[in-house]
Automatic annotation (TrEMBL):
The keyword Transmembrane applies. Signal peptide: none annotated. This is Tetratricopeptide repeat protein. Keywords: Membrane, TPR repeat, Transmembrane, Transmembrane helix. The keyword Transmembrane helix applies. PROSITE patterns: TPR. The chain crosses the membrane at residues 21-39. The lineage of its organism: Bacteria, Pseudomonadati, Pseudomonadota, Gammaproteobacteria, Chromatiales. It comes from the Bacteria. TPR repeats lie at residues 181-214.
């Protein structure tokens, strides 16, 4: 199974080819983690006052209902990220690859240092080349040098060093949000690798909020949310919010990749996980098949979602089953 550190290293100029290949690898890697989390967690249909961080149920329910109303009115296009910048290349590992012209002018020596570091196969040599630029006058150079060193540490599984350098990158002021998203992504990857799902969820949510066109952040956030939905003693509000966010990613990832076959890829992965009786994952599978045009499998998955009983808190599972029932009714 491919590691989180490997995922952040992938690059390439052709967005369709890279995203299609990365989708298969990332989604294949997602399933074992999801199954492990769901099968090892006790069923919890009745979350009482002892639940941690249940949050505001009324606010979560209002957001849930608004989400489905918008989806009913506008269809899956309601989930497509707004193209705030026509230069977006969602395949880019960093904001400087995802968006054109973020660098502006860059010192020739700094450019050569980044190029030589990229060409080197020695992690220690990479760090030596980049370290002087972590204090550069140019804020973009300063941030990028710290970010690249954090990514090197992440690939080496030195999670403490990766986190420390990512936080140093975040300390660089006056950057556009899309750039800052890269540092949050590294923090999320570090936490996910360390199996700290709460911190991973928070950091990756910040990355996606800062740059909705960040494909890698969305796919990793999707994997974290899927695991979170299998954790014991989960509150109703987090359950509703996580399920909604997963569906948002389900609609956004194929749009960013400009490849509708990813709906089916995602649906297949969640259909594989749905036998553990999680209505949220079965609903995800049903919607993925529906939007890919496979109505037969959509009907089957939505039917499974209607009958699934665990492991979510009862009020959240009821809302999910109601939506599955409504969508299945349109296929009769």
């Amino acid at each position: 199974m491919r590691s989180i550190g490997d995922l952040v290293e992938v690059g390439g100029a052709d967005r369709r080819r890279r995203l299609s290949g990365l989708a298969a690898l990332a989604l294949a890697a997602l399933v074992p983690w999801v199954l492990w989390g769901l099968l090892s967690a006790p069923v919890n249909n009745d979350c009482d006052g002892a639940c941690a961080a249940d949050g505001d149920r009324e606010a979560a329910l209002a957001a849930w209902q608004h989400f489905w109303s918008d989806l009913a009115e506008r269809g899956e296009t309601a989930l497509h990220p707004a193209a705030a910048d026509p230069s977006l290349r969602a395949a880019g590992d960093t904001a400087f690859m995802r968006y054109r012209n973020l660098w502006g002018s860059i010192d020739r020596d700094a450019r050569e240092a980044f190029q030589n570091a990229a060409l080197s196969s020695d992690p220690d040599a990479k760090v030596r080349l980049l370290h002087p630029w972590t204090m550069a006058a140019d804020k973009h150079v300063r941030f990028r040098a710290r970010l690249e060193i954090a990514r090197i540490h992440l690939r080496r599984r030195d999670l403490a060093a990766a986190e420390a350098m990512a936080r140093e990158a975040l300390a660089v002021a006056d950057l556009v949000p899309a750039i800052v998203a890269d540092a949050y992504f590294v923090l999320g990857a570090v936490a996910f690798e360390a199996r700290d799902l709460d911190r991973a969820e928070e950091a990756l949510a910040r990355a996606v909020a800062a740059d909705p066109g960040f494909w890698d952040a969305r796919q990793m956030h999707l994997a974290v949310l899927a695991e979170q939905l299998g954790q014991p003693r989960q509150g109703t509000a987090p359950c509703l919010n996580r399920t909604r966010e997963m569906i948002e990613h389900l609609g956004a990832l194929p749009a960013l990749a400009e490849d509708r076959t990813q709906y089916r890829d995602l649906a297949d992965r969640f259909a594989l996980a749905s036998p553990v009786d999680n209505p949220a994952l079965a609903l995800l599978a049903g919607l993925g098949y529906l939007w890919s045009g496979d109505l037969g499998r959509a009907r089957d998955a939505l039917t499974r979602a209607e009958g699934a009983r665990g492991p979510l808190p009862g009020p959240c599972a009821d809302q999910i089953r109601d939506q599955a029932r409504a969508y299945r009714a349109t296929l009769e």
